[in-house]
Amino acid sequence: MSEHNGLRQKVIGWVAEHAEALSRDHQEIWSYAEPSWREYRSAAWYVDRLKAEGFEVEEASGDMPTAFVARWGKGGPQIAAHAEYDAVPGTSQAVAPHREARPGSTYWDAGHTDPHSALGIGALGGVLAAKAVMEENGIEGRIAFFGEPAEKVCGSKVIHAARGYYDSLDAMISFHPSYLGGLTNTVILETHCGCYWSKLYTFETVDAETWGASRSGNVAYNTAAVARAPGANDALCLMYTTTKYTRPSMLTNSGLWTLNEAIHGAGDATADNHPPRASQIQYAWRCPTMEMAAEIERVLDANAEHVAGITHTSLHVDVISKTRFGIANRVLAEATFRAFEFAGAPTWGEESLEFAREIQAGLGLEPMDAPLVDGLERLMEPAEAEADIRRGLLPTQKNYTSDDYIEYTWHCPTVRLFVGRPMLKSPGPGYRYPDWVRNAMGGHAPTIDPMMLKASEVVGLTMLDLMLSPETVAAARREFNERTGGGIGGSDWVAPLLAPDFPPPIGYRWPSYVDTPTGPQWYAPRPFDERERPFRRNAG
Fold first, then answer.
1. pLDDT digits (tens, 9 = 90+) for 441-479
2. Cβ neighbours of residue 151 under 8 Å, at least 6 residues apart?
3. What is the H or E stretch that residue 20 is in?
4. N or C end of the chain: which has fewer CB within 10 A?
5. Residue 17 CB coordination number (10 Å)
C-alpha cells in the first residue's frame, strides 16, 4: 500500500508541477468559445497537443469534423476519459466583475457556461498525469481520450456509441463541474441522467402558386394571389403555438421533464410578392424514460404534419440526437471516490474570494467574508449525494435531467465525477445571481483553476488505481454485466437509438463564427449594445 500511495503522490505532484501550464491551456480553450459542431480551433488544439504527448490520434472520428479519439499504451486494461469543449450561444462574458461581453464580441456570441473549457482541460490533466507516472514506472495499461463535440445538443456520444467506439473500453471516467445544487465533490451512485431527444422540423413553401388553383380566375399568373399563400413563416408560427398549446397534454404529471425549442431560420428575407420559402425549428426534450420521450415525439410529429397541411408547405423531419438513460456502476463510483479521498477537496485562495466580492459589490450587495457557497471545500459521501439528488423525485423515478455521457454507461463501467465549481452564496432566500456571474468566474483563473486541477488529480488517480488493480476492473465488469443482462447485447442491454450509419448533424445552421469581407462575425443577428444604442420603439 505504501508503494501504491507513493505512485499516487506522483500523480498529484505531476499536476502541481504543471498547474500553470494547464491554467494557460484552459484560458486558450475558454477564449475560443466555439459553439456546438463548430469547435474547429478547440478540437485542433487538442489533437496537436495529444500528438505532441505521444498519443495516436484519430481525427474526425465518427465522421464528425471536430471529434477525435486519442490512444496510448499497451497491455492491461483500457481506461478512458473525455473532453468537451463546446460553448453556448448568447453567453459571451469577459473575465470581469460586471456584465461585459468578451473583447471583440457581443452578448449574442458564444461563451463557456458549465464551463466545458475546464471540463476538458481537467480531464486532460488527469490523463497526462497518469500517463507520466505509468511511463516512469513501467506500468502497463492503455489510455483512451475522447474529444466529444456538441455536448449541449447531445451530439457526438450517440454517434461514437452507435459506431462501436466504446465497446472495447474497460472503464470510463466522466468528469463534470458541479451543477446540481449542493451536489459537489462526489460521485453518482444510482440516479444517473435520463434521455435527451431532439429533432429539427423544416417547412418549405414549394408550390405556392397552387394555393388558389381551384378558385375561379386566372390565378396562375396572379402574383398577388401567390403572395397571399401561407408560407414557411406561418408554418413556423403555427408549430410554435400548437406545441405550446399541446405541451400540457403530452404527458401525465409524473416525473420531471422539459421541452425547449430553438428557431434555426425563418423565411428568406424576401420583401417581394413571394411567401417565405423555408423555416426551421428544433425541439429538444429531457425525460426520465425512453417511453416518455417517444410520447413527446409522437405529439411533435403529429403537430408538424398538421401544420404542414394547414399552411400548404412540405415537411422534412431530421433527428438531431436520441440518447438512452444512464445505468450505474457502484464499484467504479466507490473506487473513484476513494481516489478523491486521497486527493482531498479543492480549496480557494484570497484572490478568488476577492473577485467574488467585487461581483457582489457591483450588484449592489454587501460583500461577504465567505462569498462562495458552502460545501465547496469538503467531500460529499456518495450516499449523501444520492439522497440529495433524490430529494423531490418520485420514488419510482430512476433517472433525472440529461447529459449524453450516459451513452458510455451502456458500453463499459462508467463513473460520473463531480468536482466543486465555484458559485456565489445567496444573500437571502429567493435571490438568484445573473447567469453572467458564473460565466465570468469560469474564465477567472484563480477562481476556476482549483476545481479544474482537483479534477486532474482525481481523474489521474482513478486511472492509476485501475491500472494497478485488475480485481477492481473485473468487479466493475461483473456489475456491468449484471445490470445489462450479460454485457453488450445482453438481455437487459439497450442498444444505441441511432443507426451505425447515422450521419452527424453537422450541416444545419448552427450558430458559428464566420469570416466575411468586413471581418470575423458571429453569424446570428447582432443586437444593439444596450449601453451604447438603447432600444427605441419604431415611431413610423
1. 999 999 999 999 999 999 999 999 999 999 999 999 999
2. 36, 84, 86, 116, 157, 403, 404
3. helix 19-32
4. C
5. 11
Pairing of strands 414-419, 186-187: antiparallel
**Rounded Cα–Cα distance for residues 286 and 280 (Å):** 20
CB 116 within 8 A of CB 86: yes
Mean pLDDT value across residues 113-141: 97
How far is 456 from 339, CA to CA, in rounded Å?
Answer: 11
| Cβ atoms within 10 Å of 440's Cβ, excluding its own | 23
| CA dist., res. 402 & res. 404, Å (int) | 7
d(CA 460, CA 127): 6
pLDDT digits (tens, 9 = 90+) for 215-224: 545 545 555 5
Q: Decide the pairing of beta strands 78-83 and 171-177.
A: parallel
At 31-89, the pLDDT tens digits run: 999 999 999 999 999 999 999 999 999 999 999 999 999 999 999 999 999 999 999 99
* DSSP-derived secondary structure letter, 527: P
Give the residue with greater pLDDT, 268 vs 196: 196
Four-CA torsion 350, 352, 353, 355, nearest 10 degrees: 120
Q: Please tell me the pTM assigned to this model.
A: 0.93
Nearest to 380 by CA among 406, 349, 419, 413: 419
- 372: which 3 cell numbers? 462562495
3-state SS class at 142 = strand
Which residues 6+ apart lie within 8 Å of 261 measured at CB?
A: 240, 243, 281, 282, 283, 284
Residue 149, preceding bond cis, omega within 30 degrees? no
Identify the residue whose cell numbers are 504527448. Answer: 53
Rounded Cα distance, 281 and 261, in Å? 7
Using an 8 Å Cβ cutoff, are 502 and 318 in contact? no
